[in-house]
Amino acid sequence: MKDKGFKFPTELFFFYGLHSLKRKLDQESIRAFDIPELLSEVLLLKLDQTKIESFHNCRNMRNLVAHGNPPALNLRQVVALNHFLRELALEIDAHIIENFFVLEV
Asked: How many CB atoms lie within 10 A of CB 54?
């Protein structure tokens, strides 16, 4: 099939994802607000609603600090936010390594 130029749907959708990412990058810089959408639509990482809401909560906390209105957080809350971001980063890393890195031998 490959000899006849057949392309599997996953290969065709890959180019759509790249095109969507390029269009997003051409518009302006990527905003933190867009990260969950890019992760799920471009990298096809499955994010449940809880993770998306937690991400936006962290982003909102960061924005409050950046604009001079730091939220009142105790150490337990800060550690929980840090833990969430670290786990999300590890999940993204593992997903990219498993699905997008190809070793050529």
From this structure: 19
User: pLDDT tens for residues 16-53?
Assistant: 777 777 777 777 677 889 899 889 987 889 999 999 99
Please tell me what DSSP assigns to residue 47: -
Residues in the chain: 105
Residue type, 60: N
Residue carrying structure tokens 């499955």: 46
CB of 81 within 8 A of CB of 61? yes
* Spatial distance between the Cα atoms of 39 and 42, rounded to a whole number of angstroms: 6
Cα 78 from chain centroid (whole Å): 21
Quickly list DSSP for 5-70.
T---HHHHHHHHHHHHHHHHHHHSPPPGGGHHHHHHHTS-----HHHHHHHHHHHHHHHHHHTT--
pTM of the predicted protein model: 0.72
CB atoms within 10 A of CB 89: 10
